[in-house]
Amino acid sequence: MKLSIAAAIGLLALSLTEAAKTGSIKANPLPKPVNINWESSGRIHIGDLKYHGPRNEVLVKAFDRTASYIKKKWVPQSWEAPMPEWPKVPSTLPRDLGKRGDDDGDVDDDVEVENGRHRGAVNRVNVKVDDSEADLQHGVDESYNLKVTTDGTINIKAKTIWGALHAFTTLQQIVISDNGRNLFIEQPVTIDDVPKYTHRGVMYDTARNFIPIKNLKKQVEALAFSKLNVFHWHITDSQAWPLEIKHKDYRAFTRGAYSHREIYTQEHVRDLVKFARAHGVRVIPEIDMPAHSNKGWASVDPKTVACGDSWWSNDVWEHHSAVQPNPGHLDISYPGTYKILGQIFPEIAGLFKDDIFHVGFDELMPNCYEYSALTREWFDKNPGVTYNDLAQIWVNNTVEPIFKKSARRLMMWEDSVLFPAMHADIPKDVIMQSWNNGVDNIHALVKKGYDVVVTSADFFYLDCGHGGYVTNDARYNQQYKPPMNETLTKAFDAVAEYNNPYSPTLTNYGGAGASWCAPYKTWQRIYSYDFTWGLNDEEAKKVIGGEAAMWAEQVDATNLDTKVWPRAAALAELLWSGNRDSKGDKRTTELSARIFEFRERLVDLGLNASPLVPKFCIQNPHQCDLYKDQNVFAASDKAQDKARLEL
Amino acid sequence: MKLSIAAAIGLLALSLTEAAKTGSIKANPLPKPVNINWESSGRIHIGDLKYHGPRNEVLVKAFDRTASYIKKKWVPQSWEAPMPEWPKVPSTLPRDLGKRGDDDGDVDDDVEVENGRHRGAVNRVNVKVDDSEADLQHGVDESYNLKVTTDGTINIKAKTIWGALHAFTTLQQIVISDNGRNLFIEQPVTIDDVPKYTHRGVMYDTARNFIPIKNLKKQVEALAFSKLNVFHWHITDSQAWPLEIKHKDYRAFTRGAYSHREIYTQEHVRDLVKFARAHGVRVIPEIDMPAHSNKGWASVDPKTVACGDSWWSNDVWEHHSAVQPNPGHLDISYPGTYKILGQIFPEIAGLFKDDIFHVGFDELMPNCYEYSALTREWFDKNPGVTYNDLAQIWVNNTVEPIFKKSARRLMMWEDSVLFPAMHADIPKDVIMQSWNNGVDNIHALVKKGYDVVVTSADFFYLDCGHGGYVTNDARYNQQYKPPMNETLTKAFDAVAEYNNPYSPTLTNYGGAGASWCAPYKTWQRIYSYDFTWGLNDEEAKKVIGGEAAMWAEQVDATNLDTKVWPRAAALAELLWSGNRDSKGDKRTTELSARIFEFRERLVDLGLNASPLVPKFCIQNPHQCDLYKDQNVFAASDKAQDKARLEL
């Protein structure tokens, strides 16, 4: 009897029995642990889980969540199994016809060896933590050891409570049921686990559209469940300032929110930070400056904003004052900017617990500053100065005098040092977040000596591929696909066209749909990224992790979950234990079952995580593979490595 | 004071006051009525709405829904206003700096003329329907007249109750509030409205993933709210058969469902049909045959399914037995197929009220039939016969003998007559649904004499652009964007590459992301489609309407709303009153405000409709336009018409 048929008729219990016979394991946690060794003596029954460990509040509460989750008795929805055998292809008409699958529905009731306590009994969970005081900060030890013995005891050892929390998450994913009544772990198991990268996160933009705290909390739950540890909060942008400022002179900042209901009070912020911490997730705030600034500032003092009232001006690209609507940069030449910043920055920084504060610094548009009379005066008075000199003034006036007084370590977008039109000299202890040009920019930053967080738009941008959001965009008004004639061939010859998302030729009919970073990044795309390619071991250490970015031009509470999940889980595994198997080959195809299962669990947790496939593909492992050949990823790596080295 | 600033600080009441001064109207219903004439004598106060009209249950209940909705007191979130004036671009450094907007926050309290009853009073809604008995079927009169007089009386006239329901929907969208307490219609108004097309719908696929009835009902509400009148239900496909069959010999069909919880009982179906009818929405069922068939059939009698156990075989394209996993066609050569179909088809048809039944007929793969011994025998015994002859046997054995006995009119995918590899002669009274090759196929079908429903994948497919769903797909493993060298230029020269979504060259970096119908169809794309281009008036009449298609490979209850809405609203207006203004120019940009507002109302109705833009763009009309020039759509039409006529 084929698994596919059993599954399709909903006999999951049967499937599990089948699977047990083959010795395979159904409950493979995501991210895949670095070391996981299943024994073969048979099931460990799980009854009530009883905690024995340090009286640490974070730990005890996390254990309670784990135990409650497990009690709901999860029946696996997806599991890994080998590519099925297929009948031979009929080569000419009267040839051997492939046999049909046996669909008799018989249940094979092999009795299995079962270990551990009887149902209703208690499984002791021994939790040992070396240092219960270690703070949740960048670089804290997150390793853990989880051992499930034949007598049903569960032993967890970790250096810190943050490692122990990860052990609980793993435990949540290996205790399963086959009928919704019993609970078991498939085999005794030993797991030794430690993340490859220390910085693993998702960036949430709450400025383009507001997202309520309750939805952000759900994200935190999902981050923790996938062992991601950073909630990078892009709080403000030119479109809106939703963050409450209590300083008596600057309460008007939230007049830059979309409405009085779309504001994060300071109580909200503290609540989110506390909730995240309880889940082992760090909240890194970002106030994007000096570009991407308008709302809020404009209400407090309009003089702080350069080009705030300009037309962002795509009609004449040479006149553009912004990369997107609405324009606005903080006026670097206006002293009031620093006065206000110097007073609100400590207040904002005080709301957060993390050592790291992100101060933006992406996409400074020189044209914007042409709208500032003060800046034009400065140019007039200082012949020979450049936009880079202007950017340097920003750095000199902010990094030491303001930022470092309240934030232990800074993080910036790579533009601060790499953006051709306008950049500056930045201290080498600033963490650089790379979003452009894939490994080329990562290399450039590493060579300059920076620690790097990878958010390459070609792999990790979750917003791409949904078309543009700008209105009055006639590129969509392409009524027919031009036939492949000489004209079109010429168009393709034009290199500029290929690389220009504003090209009408490539907007529709297989093109980018006016999404500048199209196409949509699928979970396979995200997982495939070898972002340290070409770095030596020493250089690779400068890459401290990665983040997916959820830019919110077309995202709010209605579709946040579905855009982030389960794709971020592919990133989670990539950053935790990598994307390769013990042979060094890409294990993307093996991840299929894990991420399908993880998605079902996210839905169970209350998130609207997107389905990745027809449920048929979940219930029938590998039957939705594009190629029967299971080595296509390894082959494609080999071919590309060769081609790239030849460049 | 600029509207943008008022809006950004949340003073919607202020914005409305501003707007009233300019004489513009905020509450523009979607779809835009064919004729709408606003007067200028001022607000009509709205109190309790009291129904005076026929005692028809559908009508009275619909009125009650409308009155309840209005009572919630909607404050508009979006409105149309002209492109703002912008300061002059500073051409060199010491030049005139544009003035900054006035942000003094003063409220202009102009007293307005107000008509109608005082607050708390009753507004009489006179509803006159000529024929309360007209059934909800294709072609039923849906026109209505809605008149709001200065004394606050609302007069609705319609030929049928289905037209009156549309009048209610319009009424829902023109009664607004500016403070959440009062209620008014901005001006006296007269609306004469009638749809351009009789068939206006969305296709829902519930086979690739199951979607619960409660979610489908929410879709019905949104369809009705946008005056779409067809819920095309693609119930079954090769991956799953979720529909309960009660015939004693064939109860095993639902063993082809994903689980016992993922089944539509016949009670569910009747409930949905009734719910839809109460909302003026027709449910057209589709059982996709003879291709796209496997699950369900395989459980009842495996011999009915050809190639059900074959590998779908993209490794060797010549061997492919399916366009997607999993394979399966009904075996045309097996008599048992017709025996079963003849018994279940009347049962299924009996669950629905609509005259039209869709019997599929898309994507017949000749290779699939090579896996059927009976079909191979038939080929052997009948030298010279073709796959088309095989398809014709299907038609001869089903259309008259089975389908027409239970369904008054049939609908099929265009493949039945246009698919090159395998098609048949089909009676001319069958409605053809066109999904391929844009207007070329529409023309071909019209020339053959068929009525056509337009679902062109290049414009109306809602699933496109989210990447492929197949696993083991190494096309995503493209680590770097090849530099534009000779090799790549040559690749672009290859026409085949351009048109092949399986091309690795164009999967990533601006390519299609392995989505065969990429890119994502934005609302502007959907709305722009001139699907009767090139047809004369007589031919154009054969186009009876259109449908958006929500194929569900990557859709279920978690993300159904967000994928369909508000994009389907762009289709709704296109099919109701077209995409052009009184001058004949495309009014896509004008639709912006309507569709933004409509989206907010959908969210209020309880749907997770996607945000289309940063809220900034909603609150600041035209500030997110790509071009300042408001005639770019008209210009692009002109250019394309010229180019196309020259082809």
How would you characterize this protein structure?
- 2 copies of one chain form a homodimer.
- With 647 residues, chain A is of the alpha/beta class.
- The first copy, chain A, contains 23 helices and 20 strands.
- In chain A, strands 11-12-13-16-17-18-19-20 form an 8-stranded parallel barrel.
- In chain A, helix 12 links the parallel strand 17 and strand 18.
- In chain A, helix 5 runs parallel beside helix 6 and helix 8 runs parallel beside helix 11.
- The longest helix of chain A is centred in the middle third of the chain and has 20 residues.
- Chain A starts with a helix and ends with a helix.
- The N terminus of chain A is likely disordered.
- Chains A and B meet through helix 10, helix 15, helix 21, helix 22 and helix 23 of A and helix 10, helix 15, helix 21, helix 22 and helix 23 of B.
- Chains A, B: This is Beta-hexosaminidase.
- Chains A, B: It catalyses: Hydrolysis of terminal non-reducing N-acetyl-D-hexosamine residues in N-acetyl-beta-D-hexosaminides.
- Chains A, B: It is an enzyme of class 3 (hydrolase).
- Chains A, B: It comes from Actinomortierella ambigua.
